[in-house]
């Protein structure tokens, strides 16, 4: 079975929109606190120049970010960014740009920071899928590769994308804000690709996708989710015994293959239920359920509401 572009398949199921909100131009000392984000939002930060310390009180982790680093917080965690000096920060001045984003500056005389901050918006109910399969914090580095291999790497493409975001946010040209928001959406996809290509891919979907021996199973589930896949069939596609397949899958994803298949099916079902012409019976069959009652039970368990409730909610939001 040919390998399928799992990331494009995922992003066809889940609508992601990006929005730049703030460009921070600070001299040390400085400090910025971000509260917990809403369920359907993922904050991001792009360090263009300088360095920043990011602290996540929830996980009690601290990490240094340098120029070219991009951090996404898929769980929307509250977090603090600062210069690391421990000195009390001065006042900041915020100026609303004509393009729709804010320029935040201070009078600090220390090391200079240039950083873009924004967020991604996920169409409901797919925020649950993102939280379940992506890490709390995801840091990727945009570095221009010097080798031939580097030219095609995701980190090299990220470097080009970040350079374009820097230019657009520095100017005041027509369409700049729209371009920045479009680039933000591309940033999400490239960041996930770069993380999955990394040797230190975090546990979850990114580590799973970067595991070449498991790729045929992922391709199969995304290509034909309605097929009644079982573990022996999926293991056979990967050239593994059932026990070895289950162990590798659980180790990389933190969940079973059947759980992933069920989540793919329910995400597709949520999209199909938005279509008035699709009956619940037709939706159930389209994602591999012959029993409507079984489909309703699984959908309710995964999505926290019945198919009918989701259909009504989705129609009022449009």
Keywords:
single chain, alpha+beta, Jelly Rolls, 13 helices, 11 strands, globular
How would you characterize this protein structure?
It is built from 13 helices and 11 strands. The protein is of the alpha+beta class and 318 residues long. The chain has 2 domains: 6-200, Jelly Rolls; 211-317, Arc Repressor Mutant, subunit A (Orthogonal Bundle). A 7-stranded mixed beta sheet has the order 8-9-1-10-3-6-11. It has a 4-stranded antiparallel beta sheet with strand order 2-7-4-5, with no helix packed on it. A hairpin with a 5-residue loop joins strand 8 (92-96) and strand 9 (102-106). It is globular, with a radius of gyration of 21 Å.
In short:
The protein is of the alpha+beta class and 318 residues long. It contains 13 helices and eleven strands.
Q: What topology, given as strand order, has the largest sheet?
A: 8-9-1-10-3-6-11
> What is the overall number of helices?
13
Structural class: alpha+beta
**Separation of the first and last Cα atoms:** 38 Å
- Beta-strand fraction estimate: 15-25%
CATH class of the largest domain: Mainly Beta
Gyration radius from CA atoms, angstroms: 21 Å
Binned, the helix content reads 40-55%
The figure for the number of domains is 2
Unreliable spans:
145-151
Main beta sheet: 7 strands, mixed
Order of helices and strands: HEEEEEEEEEEHEHHHHHHHHHHH
Mean pLDDT: 88
CATH architecture type of the largest domain: Sandwich
């Amino acid at each position: 079975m040919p390998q399928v572009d799992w990331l494009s398949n995922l992003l066809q199921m889940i609508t992601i929109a990006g929005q730049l909100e703030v460009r921070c131009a600070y001299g040390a000392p400085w400090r910025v606190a971000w509260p917990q984000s809403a369920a359907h939002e993922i904050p991001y930060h792009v360090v263009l120049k300088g360095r920043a310390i990011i602290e996540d009180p929830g996980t009690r982790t601290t990490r240094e970010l340098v120029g070219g680093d991009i951090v996404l917080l898929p769980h929307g965690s509250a977090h603090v960014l600062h210069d690391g000096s421990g000195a009390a920060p001065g006042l900041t001045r915020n100026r609303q740009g004509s393009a729709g984003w804010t320029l935040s500056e201070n009078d600090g005389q220390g090391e200079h920071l240039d950083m873009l901050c924004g967020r991604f918006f996920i169409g409901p109910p797919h925020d649950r899928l993102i939280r379940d399969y992506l890490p709390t914090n995801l840091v990727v580095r945009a570095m221009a590769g010097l080798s031939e291999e580097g030219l095609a790497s995701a980190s090299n493409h990220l470097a080009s994308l970040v350079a374009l975001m820097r230019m657009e946010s520095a100017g005041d040209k027509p369409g700049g804000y729209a371009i920045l928001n479009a680039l933000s959406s591309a940033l999400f996809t490239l960041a996930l690709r770069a993380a999955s290509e990394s040797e230190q891919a975090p546990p979850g979907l990114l580590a799973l996708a970067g595991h070449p021996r498991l790729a045929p199973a992922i391709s199969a589930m995304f290509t034909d989710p309605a097929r009644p896949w079982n573990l022996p069939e999926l293991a056979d596609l990967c050239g593994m015994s059932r026990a070895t397949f289950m162990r590798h899958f659980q180790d990389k994803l933190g969940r079973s293959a059947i759980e992933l298949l069920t989540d793919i099916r329910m995400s597709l079902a949520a999209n199909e239920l938005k279509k008035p012409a699709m009956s619940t019976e037709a939706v159930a069959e389209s994602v591999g359920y012959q029993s409507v009652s079984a489909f309703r039970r699984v959908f309710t368990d995964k999505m926290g509401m019945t198919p009918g409730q989701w259909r009504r909610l989705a129609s009022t939001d449009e």
